[in-house]
Write a structure and sequence with these properties.
alpha/beta, eight-stranded parallel beta sheet
Amino acid sequence: MNNIFDTHAHYADSAFDDDRETVLAQLPEQGVRYVMLASSGVEDTAANAELAGRYDYIYAASGVHPESIDSNPADYLSIVESTARTESKVRAIGEIGLDYHYEGFDREKQIILFEEQIVLAKELGLPIIVHSRDAAEDTLTLLKKHRPYGVVHCFSYSAEIAQEIVKLGMYVGFTGVLTFKNAKKPCKALAEVPVDRILLETDCPYMAPEPFRGRRCDSSMIAYTAQTAAEIKGLGVQELLDMTCENGRRFYSI
């Protein structure tokens, strides 16, 4: 397999501290053409921009994840903006969004954080990478209000919600979860999303597809996710990889 575009990865994560350079050096030999590094906070944003500067095939996003809401410096928004304006390989604001899965995170603060970054992305003319977990209603409300250009990554909601996302002119990102035995909802959602609106991703080091479930994930494993996705869409695996790579290039202006 070749022409793999991992549209959402986290290589600044500590899971890669022991062998990050080795992994990143090998990925192009394993068919990986592009990688987009999503940020979880301002420290990640700086690390991702640095990695993107050293590897031709890597690009980065600048943004603050909802779970980082209580650890942000007061000037987080200006840091996100400055990085996006000054680093040429920063092509998106993200990952940003809402996560209601865990108790203890103020939902109103999350909404403010999400909305501020949506507005910033529109001012900068950049797409957004949306994280949404157990927060479909509020996510859709904000997306319909602001109409940003973006992707809902690691999609886990219903086919009906996927259709709503597509109607907004957005993309839908799918991970190795598609290969899990209990992945009925994302598989049904994928079946309803037009091929030109599909992005493939790992969310590595998380979400490794079968037969690697439970292990550290890397971008080469998208080939297994693509096999399942191709079966659902009635396409050849390489054909699907070619199409989703082109989708990613278009989405991130590469």
